[in-house]
Amino acid sequence: MGALLGRVTKGPLPPVPGGGPFPPGPVPGGPPPVPVEGARIVVSDLSGRMPRSVVTNDQGFYSISLPPETYRVTMAPLALGGFTKDLPATVTITAGQQTRLDILIDTGIR
Q1: CA–CA separation, 33 vs 104, rounded Å?
Q2: Which side of the chain, N or C, has fewer Cβ within a 10 Å radius?
Q3: Contacts of 87 by beta carbon, 8 Å cutoff, 6+ apart
Q4: What distance, in Å, lies between the first and last C-alpha atoms of the chain?
Q5: What Cα–Cα distance (Å) separates residue 70 from each residue in 55, 61, 78, 98, 108?
Q6: Coil, helix or strand at residue 108
């Protein structure tokens, strides 16, 4: 078995002059991202079978044990809205290893 783990946070992404692509993460020196409690992370094999899910704790962390394989990771819609460019993601789980996938939710607030 291996493990997929990470943290889900939310916060505004910085505006970029000229409307170019957004850099990853929150504004440097700005407020820290806020943990997202109760986010449902959904993990399924690449054919969409055998979905499993895990819910983030009060600090936004999640962890799920998985057999070695390549998986597609998505997230159920959040009650308070928001979106992420981090998902869907493809991750490969290796036996005895931890794979980290952090997810930043953009609230749309600028």
Answers
A1: 8
A2: C
A3: 73, 74, 75, 103
A4: 41
A5: 20, 21, 25, 13, 31
A6: coil
Answer yes or no: are the C-beta atoms of 99 and 92 closer than 8 Å: yes
Q: pLDDT of 29-57, one tens digit each?
A: 667 789 999 999 999 999 988 899 999 99
Q: Which residues pair with 72 in a beta bridge?
A: 44, 90
Contact at 8 Å (CB) between 67 and 91?
no
In this structure, what token pair is assigned to residue 19?
């409307």
Instruction: Please tell me the pTM assigned to this model.
Output: 0.81
Phi-psi region of 25 (alpha: psi -120 to 50; beta: other; left: phi over 0): left
Q: How far apart are CA 41 and CA 54, in angstroms?
A: 5
